[in-house]
Amino acid sequence: MTTSDKNASAATRGTLAALACFLFWGVIPVYWKQMQGIAATELIAHRIVWSLVFLGAVLAVRRDVGAVRTALTDPRQLGLTLLSGSLLTVNWLVYVWAVNHGHVIESSLGYFLVPLFNVALGFLVLHERLRPLQWLAVSCAAGGVALLLFGLGRLPWIALTLAGSWGCYSLMRRRSPLGSLDGLAVETLLLAPAAVAFLLWRQHTGTGALGRVDLATHGFVLSAGWVTAIPLILFAYGARRIRFTTLGLLQYLSPTVQFLVGLLVYHEVFDAARGRAYGFIWCGLVLYTADSLWAQRRLLRAAVSGQ
Fold first, then answer.
1. Do the beta carbons of residue 119 and residue 292 sit within 8 Å?
2. Is the pLDDT of residue 296 over 80?
3. What is the C-alpha separation between 33 and 102, in angstroms, rounded?
4. pTM to 2 decimals?
């Protein structure tokens, strides 16, 4: 097999892994809906604990704990990781609460907003210069949020919290030397004591789920670790093997599937007012995607001409 054939094969495997990851994240509301009777706070505590157990097993099998050990001995890294883990916990908590209270469509909007929020964050925090189409894309998204505010009489706080917490989390992870699995392992390790204490308190007060729900629900609760970690493993595998632009385009698959699940499976409300607002936000995403593709093409041309 030639080098080009090997590269093509690796890209194909990477694309399939990324597709599986984003499809998994797209249908995940169905999983959380099976545990509607359990408080979102308890579900997230279980997610932290069982994710740590699963990730610990993965790292033990790989015999690769060097990065985790280094992070645990660096006070600055510990502080940054604790902050990123707290942001991730907020994101998880709002998402699970929203799904189990009938807001799957608004949750999908949060993840549609993430790329545009990242552009705005880059401008405000990293002082990156925005290109004209990026300005237009962010303006369209802001217009869509304004329409939701005036049309519904309230801010879409679920979508904004999800986009904001995930965008800030991504910014923190960007500054971390840890990979996705190592980073999540350290984050869950730091948060696990509080999660375990909370679960023990719930059990002590008679409000905990374990031992008080049916066998199927026990299975769903205890599977939170691999449900969290497996798509991350697929994402990490795909991200190393396909172009960043391709990965950026595939990321829209997850909120699109979530949107369809909310609309077609759970029959959530999507009226004309929401349609107009989402239309503005989707136009912003089209402009953002077009700008990203053109920027990537210019870089490729510059690289070719410089050879």
1. no
2. no
3. 9
4. 0.87
| Cα distances (angstroms) measured from residue 190 to each of 82, 83, 168, 175 | 6, 10, 19, 18
| Each residue's pLDDT tens digit, 230-259 | 888 888 778 777 776 677 777 888 999 999
**Candidate ranges 71-80, 157-166, 291-300; pick with highest mean pLDDT:** 157-166
Could you give the angle at which helices 104-124 and 132-152 cross, rounded to 10 degrees? 140
DSSP one-letter string for 207-253: --STTTS-HHHHHHHHTHHHHHHHHHHHHHHHHTTS-HHHHHHHTTH
Q: Measured between alpha carbons, how far is 97 from 295 in angstroms, rounded to an integer? A: 38
285 close to 112: Cβ distance less than 8 angstroms? yes
